[in-house]
């Protein structure tokens, strides 16, 4: 439901801005109207995905407002949700008869109900996409690094968990594409047999969006769904690479976020995903050899026509306090660093070994706060890249 456009019509300014702030925080795009007439114009001109309105209007009768939207081809199917300041039953009945999808009365519980309704309306939308009807693809975020041991997999898993946490109604899939052996299943404690290798061996017709919704494990307490990586090098090297593109495409049509761990590989298999990504999260540790190699990777990505706006660089102090400062790393790599992850000593490894996200193992640690902020910033950045490409 991320990025869906909601038109809010409420004649009461305070109520309107409260609603619009709340929905913006939930990553919706919000349009506002303060009269029935303005709302009709905006609905037909801007094609919102949903209209949320207080049916107590002074310039148009509510039934007329609803009928006008219902009778126009552009808004015939747009979900209409009334959030009413009139508690009486007669207005409710009139609105429902005129064709609103939902009728809520403003109260302290209304926001929770509204949230559920939005999740339901937009998630049925997501499953239509999963069946191949829609075009909108989930956001693709890839994680990579120039060198091993920089914390790419740990950051990938923890950021994915935080993305799901800040956007609980979105569908998030993590795919471990590190070859010849993946490590995310070890970080999250998944021990099952479903992984990229086994899935790539299934007949194409079987690996639908629905298949992934139903079968990808959701390891506790990580919340996202995982397509685990290769369990060992023997099988990793036998991977049917041609199937991977199709699998990621299917996942993108069935999930709001598809998050790939590509590790340090810039291979024939991973390059197309880096090119398609809405956001490229480049993980850099502070030792000089990694920083310098990261510059090489940056130049390579540039040579492949990848827009540097898409690159989201994170400096991870995985190796202690020594090494490059943020300013030094920026100067060497030639890219701005968006966030620095602090050195967490043995705590990080301990959390990984216990299959715990940092956010649940050390909820008050600075790192947990940084992870949350990172998730919010990355969602925003990915949307911005997407919007700049489609406009
Ligand atoms: N900020 C940090 N503070 C302390 N330890 C960290 C930090 N980031 C990562 N580590 C530790 O560094 C180790 C390597 O992390 P991880 O496996 O995520 O890296 P990677 O880049 O995916 O490595 P690989 O090349 O093996 O795929 C882990 O033990 C992890 O706990
Ligand atoms: Mg890794």
Protein architecture, described:
This protein is an alpha/beta fold and 391 residues long. Helices cover 46% and strands 16% of the residues. It has helices at residues 13-25, 36-46, 62-70, 89-98, 110-130, 152-166, 184-188, 196-200, 209-215, 233-237, 242-254, 271-276, 288-303, 326-333, 346-353, 358-361, 366-390; strands spanning 5-9, 29-33, 50-53, 80-84, 102-105, 139-145, 172-176, 225-227, 257-263, 279-285, 311-316, 337-341. The strands form 2 sheets. The protein has a 7-stranded parallel beta sheet, with helices on both faces. Strands 2-1-3-4-5 form a 5-stranded parallel beta sheet, with helices on both faces. α4 (89-98) links the parallel β4 and β5 (102-105). α3 runs parallel beside α4. The longest helix is centred in the C-terminal third of the chain and has 25 residues, at 366-390. It is elongated, with a radius of gyration of 23 Å. The protein starts with a strand and ends with a helix. Bound molecules: adenosine-5'-triphosphate and magnesium ion (MG). The site of adenosine-5'-triphosphate (ATP) has 22 residues, from α6 and α15.
Short overview:
This protein has 391 residues and is an alpha/beta fold. The chain contains 17 helices and twelve strands. Helix 5 (110-130) runs antiparallel to helix 11 and helix 9 (209-215) packs across helix 11.
Helix-strand layout with pairing:
Blueprint: E1 5-9, H1 13-25, E2 29-33, H2 36-46, E3 50-53, H3 62-70, E4 80-84, H4 89-98, E5 102-105, H5 110-130, E6 139-145, H6 152-166, E7 172-176, H7 184-188, H8 196-200, H9 209-215, E8 225-227, H10 233-237, H11 242-254, E9 257-263, H12 271-276, E10 279-285, H13 288-303, E11 311-316, H14 326-333, E12 337-341, H15 346-353, H16 358-361, H17 366-390
Parallel strand pairs: 1-2, 1-3, 3-4, 4-5, 6-9, 6-10, 7-8, 7-9, 10-11, 11-12
Helix pairs in contact: 2-3, 3-4, 5-11, 6-17, 9-11
Bound molecules: adenosine-5'-triphosphate and magnesium ion (MG).
């Amino acid at each position: 439901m991320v990025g869906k456009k909601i038109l809010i019509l409420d004649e009461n300014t305070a109520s309107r801005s409260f609603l619009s702030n709340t929905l913006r925080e939930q990553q919706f795009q919000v349009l506002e109207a303060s009269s029935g007439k303005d709302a009709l114009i905006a609905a037909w001109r801007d094609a919102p995905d949903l209209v949320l309105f207080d049916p107590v209007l002074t310039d148009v009768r509510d039934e007329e407002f609803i009928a006008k939207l219902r009778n126009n081809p552009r808004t015939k199917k747009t979900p209409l949700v009334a959030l009413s300041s009139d508690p009486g039953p007669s207005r409710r009945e009139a609105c429902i008869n005129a064709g609103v999808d939902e009728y809520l009365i403003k109260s302290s519980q209304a926001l929770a109900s509204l949230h559920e309704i939005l999740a339901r309306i937009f998630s049925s939308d997501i499953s239509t996409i999963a069946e191949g009807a829609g075009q909108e693809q989930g956001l693709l975020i890839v994680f990579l690094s120039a060198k091993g041991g920089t914390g790419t997999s740990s950051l990938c898993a923890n950021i994915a968990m935080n993305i799901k946490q800040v956007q609980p109604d979105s569908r998030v899939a993590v795919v471990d594409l590190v070859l010849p052996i993946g490590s995310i299943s070890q970080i999250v404690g998944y021990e099952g047999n479903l992984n990229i290798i086994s899935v790539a061996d299934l007949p194409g017709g079987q690996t639908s969006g629905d298949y992934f919704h139903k079968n990808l494990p959701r390891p506790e307490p990580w919340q996202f769904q995982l397509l685990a990586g290769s369990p060992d090098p023997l099988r990793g090297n036998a991977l049917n690479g041609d199937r991977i593109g199709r699998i990621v495409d299917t996942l993108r049509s069935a999930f709001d976020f598809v998050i790939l761990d590509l590790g340090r590989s810039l291979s024939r298999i991973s390059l197309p995903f880096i090119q398609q990504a809405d956001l490229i999260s480049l993980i850099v540790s502070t030792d000089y050899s990694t920083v310098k190699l990261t510059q090489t990777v940056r130049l390579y990505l540039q040579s492949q026509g990848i827009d540097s706006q898409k690159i989201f660089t994170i400096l991870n102090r995985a190796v202690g306090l020594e090494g490059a400062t943020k300013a030094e790393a920026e100067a060497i790599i030639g890219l701005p660093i968006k966030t620095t992850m602090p050195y967490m000593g043995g705590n990080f490894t301990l959390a990984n070994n216990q299959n715990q996200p940092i956010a649940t193992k050390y909820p008050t640690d600075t790192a947990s706060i940084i992870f949350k902020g990172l998730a919010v910033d990355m969602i925003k950045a990915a949307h911005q890249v997407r919007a700049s490409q489609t406009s």
